[in-house]
């Protein structure tokens, strides 16, 4: 009886629409009572984010040996978050100036915009001198990609965006939510645990003229596999021949090799070969400004006038999305990049972060080789950047988490930034047990 009545209430609620007061029965007195149902009662629960959800699960775990290798955020040897010394120094300078909290202009903080383009192309690059670079400060890498996606939706109508398979999980959401059609191009060869260069070239050759190709500027996430300089050159030439627009996602400049210039090789090469490019840049990882949301969308074009007009349109899009970007992180980044002394110190700190990751990478490989010599583990030190793409299957990943409390994404990626020497043995044992038994 009660069940039937409740069912009836739901039907009435749906028919009449939201925010309806309906009538319910009390078991004991059959009295009528008025109860309000939310107009959002039918909204389904969204699944947890495949990357950030890992950190939530890690926090909820009570295991004393738990290890968070999910999120790509740098940790020191004690597995603690790091605020770089240059960031503290820059903040001290900023605070001493007692600056106000007024809005920035829509395109962002001028010294930050200059610093960001210098970092990408190298100070004094002809494109900068010729004024054919449009740059808008945005909400870190993600926000910059989203502004780029909005720009593509509006001005490259119907263009398909090609993203690597696999890629950072959020690329699909960013372009998909903006209503931009996306497809995969082949990238990773599981047999060689390396780049599927042939597949990549075939897929880009087959892409319709005018398509957009998202390329990871360096330290490909999640595979840690980058094209060689020769392969980059061939990709650039193919983009030119096929009229494809390269959209570089530069989230790890400095983290691949520890050297900012070396890590900007690919976008600089494309520009120098006469291609127009879009770039999203992030200071989350290399300056450790994760939560400050500092980044930019850059367009390097052939001529000054279209660059000026594109900037005006980027501003229009940003105005409707978030109006103007945050000040504090931009001031920090500008202070560090534009100050000779701090810039040199930053390079040293970055080498330190990249070096620590490289060290644990080597330690993990050696531990696995000692415990499971029949398998080739050399791919671990061939990969670069923050991650290693282990090749663990989803079932093996579940075992890593459920049995060993090692939290990682289900694609088999582990963030080496969350590993230290003391935990290498534990991780290697968990991997070997999972590979052998699952
Ligand atoms: C490939 C790639 N692009 C973009 C981002 C965006 O990061 P953020 O929005 O923190 O700059 C990330 C972060 O993990 C990433 O791995």
UniProtKB/TrEMBL annotation:
Cofactor(s) annotated in UniProt: pyridoxal 5'-phosphate
Source organism (scientific name): Volvox carteri f. nagariensis
Domain of life: Eukaryota
InterPro entries in the record: Aminotransferase_I/II_large, Asp_trans, NHTrfase_class1_PyrdxlP-BS, PyrdxlP-dep_Trfase, PyrdxlP-dep_Trfase_major, PyrdxlP-dep_Trfase_small
The reaction(s) this protein catalyses: L-aspartate + 2-oxoglutarate = oxaloacetate + L-glutamate
Subunit text: Homodimer.
SUPFAM superfamilies recorded: PLP-dependent transferases
Residues of the Aminotransferase class I/classII large domain: 65-431
Pfam (any one): Aminotran_1_2
Source lineage: Eukaryota, Viridiplantae, Chlorophyta, core chlorophytes, Chlorophyceae
GO molecular function, one term: L-aspartate:2-oxoglutarate aminotransferase activity
Recorded coiled-coil stretches: none
EC number of the protein: 2.6.1.1
Protein name according to UniProt: Aspartate aminotransferase
EC class name: transferase
GO biological process, alphabetically ordered: amino acid metabolic process
Leftover remarks: In eukaryotes there are cytoplasmic, mitochondrial and chloroplastic isozymes.
Record keywords, A-Z: Aminotransferase, Pyridoxal phosphate, Transferase
Family classification: Belongs to the class-I pyridoxal-phosphate-dependent aminotransferase family.
